[in-house]
């Protein structure tokens, strides 16, 4: 993947609900809010090492789940294909508008785009 923060964010998006509330909270503060370990520790009245341990355990757990399921990897492989389908539907729509004005082609483009959007979610 592109970088560690991006990877951790993707793992959290896919597997974050499997974490404890404390792990989710610390993880979010560290990666989403960009707080330092020291800042989180100060806010919660625990040691910096304590915060680090919680985050490292969360990362390890989500990485283990990803290693077993491969969902993030498959999603990342899948995304460019969905984008290509969406672009092709838009090109068909443009050609249809300029040359044919076929209502059925427009409806099919709508269906393709809607299904591609559903796959992106």
Primary descriptors:
mainly alpha, single chain, elongated, 0% strand, 121 residues
Shape: elongated
Overall average residue pLDDT: 92
How much strand? Answer: under 5%
| Distance between the ends | 20 Å
Helix proportion range:
over 70%
Report Rg.
21 Å
Number of helices: 6
- Poorly predicted runs: none
Largest beta-sheet characterization: none
Structural class: mainly alpha
Instruction: Give a count of the beta strands, DSSP E runs of length 2 or more.
Output: 0
Along the chain, the helix and strand elements come as HHHHHH
Notes on the structure:
The protein is mainly alpha-helical and 121 residues long. It has six helices and no strands. The protein has helices at residues 4-15, 21-32, 37-44, 48-69, 71-100, 103-120. Helix 1 packs antiparallel against helix 2 (21-32), helix 3 (37-44) packs across helix 4 (48-69) and helix 5 (71-100) packs antiparallel against helix 6. The chain is elongated and about 70 Å long.
């Amino acid at each position: 993947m592109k970088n560690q923060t991006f990877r951790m964010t993707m793992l959290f998006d896919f597997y974050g609900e499997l974490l404890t509330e404390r792990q989710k909270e610390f993880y979010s503060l560290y990666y989403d809010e960009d707080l330092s370990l020291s800042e989180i520790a100060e806010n919660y009245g625990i040691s910096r090492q304590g915060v680090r341990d919680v985050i490292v355990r969360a990362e390890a757990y989500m990485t283990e789940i990803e290693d077993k399921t491969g969902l993030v990897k498959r999603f990342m492989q899948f995304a460019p294909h969905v984008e290509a389908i969406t672009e092709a539907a838009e090109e068909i729509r443009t050609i249809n508008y300029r040359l044919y004005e076929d209502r059925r082609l427009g409806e099919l483009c709508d269906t393709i785009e809607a299904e591609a959007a559903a796959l992106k979610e």
